[in-house]
């Protein structure tokens, strides 16, 4: 969607505004931009559903500016043949199911659905099973020259697959799923367990087809949060790797430090690191923080962070800046009298940024990274302190 909308504001389109006779394609876009008053979008459960919804909206509204067309030749249709074992192919002719604007997306959708509901694509019949049969994309019996072993049940199964694909492509996702679930339960009642298990697997695969975009949407939400974080603090790059640090000790004893890593907005626990403070036994959190950072950045094999988060105020901010590589942005999280996160200090601003002024998702990400570093440090401190106590007791 972003790429499609972005193309409407390209340099060539801007230049076309001042050109007396713009090319037909650019003139059409300019006309559309002058006519349009707003942009709306609708979320769907998956790429498959997005394709189907688009088809339904095109059919309903017949949009003037959708594509260059004087007829339907620019649209794509899913065609179902009328032979004994129907085949499915894509055409520009106005037939069967459509229209679709994206032939590639339609082709991919059919490929995905074919894994769940196999159907034949062979142009000719043959004596032996085809390659697609061995890949489980084709029932096999539908394209054999010798049809003597093909009975009613095989034909019924094949036609059910075709009906299910038609149902999905016309937006009847729920009715297709309910029908399969009903059939699966009936098979189980009839003690046809192998068939019931096979159908259950089909249902799982079909539901996975409709679920995959939800995962993508979660990733996109994380990316948006990272982008907002980048904008809020003027970071040079998207903060895909964030490192948060904390020190834990009581009066300097059993002092430890923690480094937690967030990759793409999520805790990346395999990259967490613990540090046993060696240079100080008296309470000096700043010196301890510097030691931990110094040791961390000696590891050139570790990927550099796009952002560092430290617990504290300007003092901790400056201590981190003096030890870490200068190109890495740093934010320091201060706490109020109630020991709740309150303000953020950065190197670029003399005044602290109010945490409450940030977007909720950005605020949550910063607080999560900070509290995770604190949790990890406390856990390591308790482990170290317990061991020290046991050693003394011995």
3D structure, described in words:
The chain has 394 residues and is α+β, with helices and mostly antiparallel strands. The protein folds into 3 domains: 1-41, no CATH class; 45-214, no CATH class; 241-393, Nucleotidyltransferase, domain 5. It contains 12 helices and 11 strands. The protein has helices at 2-7, 11-16, 24-35, 47-61, 103-116, 131-134, 152-169, 173-189, 193-233, 285-296, 314-323, 360-393; strands at residues 76-80, 88-91, 97-100, 241-250, 253-263, 266-267, 273-276, 307-311, 330-335, 341-346, 353-354. Strands 4, 5, 6, 7, 8, 9, 10 and 11 form an 8-stranded mixed beta sheet that branches. A 3-stranded antiparallel beta sheet has the order 2-1-3. Helix 8 (173-189) runs antiparallel to helix 9 and helix 10 (285-296) runs parallel beside helix 11. The longest helix has 41 residues, at 193-233. The N and C termini lie far apart (68 Å).
Mind summarizing the main beta sheet?
8 strands, mixed
Report the total helices. 12
Uncertain residue segments: 68-73
- Output the radius of gyration: 31 Å
User: Could you tell me the strand content as a percent range?
Assistant: 5-15%
* Overall pLDDT: 82
- Tally of structural domains: 3
Number of strands: 11
The assigned structural class equals: alpha+beta
| H and E order | HHHHEEEHHHHHEEEEHEHEEEH
Task: Determine the fraction of residues in helical runs and give it as a percent range.
Answer: 40-55%
Distance between the termini: 68 Å
Morphology = flat
């Amino acid at each position: 969607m972003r790429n499609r909308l972005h193309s409407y504001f390209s340099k060539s389109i801007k230049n076309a505004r001042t050109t007396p006779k713009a090319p037909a394609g650019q003139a059409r876009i300019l006309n559309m931009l002058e006519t349009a008053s707003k942009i709306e979008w609708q979320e769907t459960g998956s790429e498959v559903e997005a394709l189907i919804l688009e088809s339904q909206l095109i059919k309903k509204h017949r949009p003037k500016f959708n594509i260059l067309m004087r007829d339907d030749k620019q649209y794509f249709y899913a065609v179902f043949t009328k032979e004994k074992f129907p085949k499915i192919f894509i055409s520009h002719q106005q037939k069967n199911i459509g229209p679709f604007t994206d032939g590639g997306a339609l082709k991919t959708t059919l490929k995905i659905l074919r894994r769940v509901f196999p159907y034949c694509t062979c142009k000719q019949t043959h004596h032996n099973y085809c390659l697609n049969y061995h890949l489980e994309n084709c029932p096999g019996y539908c394209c054999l020259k010798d049809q003597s072993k093909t009975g009613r049940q095989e034909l019924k199964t094949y036609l059910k697959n075709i009906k299910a694909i038609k149902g999905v492509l016309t937006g009847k996702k729920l009715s297709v799923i309910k029908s399969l679930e009903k059939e699966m339960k009936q098979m189980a009642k009839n003690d046809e367990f192998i068939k019931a298990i096979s159908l259950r697997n089909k249902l799982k695969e079909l539901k996975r087809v409709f679920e995959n975009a939800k995962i993508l949407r979660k990733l996109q939400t994380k990316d948006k949060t990272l982008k907002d974080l980048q904008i809020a603090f003027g970071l040079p790059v998207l903060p895909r790797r964030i490192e948060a640090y904390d020190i834990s000790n009581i009066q300097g004893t059993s002092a430890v430090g923690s480094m937690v890593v967030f990759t793409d907005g999520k805790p990346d626990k395999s990259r967490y690191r613990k540090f046993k403070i060696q240079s100080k036994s008296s309470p000096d959190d700043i010196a301890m923080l510097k030691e931990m950072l110094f040791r961390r950045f000696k590891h050139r094999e570790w990927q550099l962070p796009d952002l560092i988060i430290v617990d504290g105020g300007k003092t901790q901010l400056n201590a981190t800046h003096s030890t870490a590589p200068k190109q890495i942005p740093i934010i320091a999280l201060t706490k109020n009298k109630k020991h709740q996160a309150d303000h953020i200090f950065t190197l670029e601003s003399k005044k602290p940024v109010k945490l409450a002024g940030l977007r909720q998702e950005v605020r949550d990400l910063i607080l999560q990274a900070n509290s995770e570093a604190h949790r990890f440090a406390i856990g390591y401190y308790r482990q170290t302190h317990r061991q020290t106590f046991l050693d003394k007791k011995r």
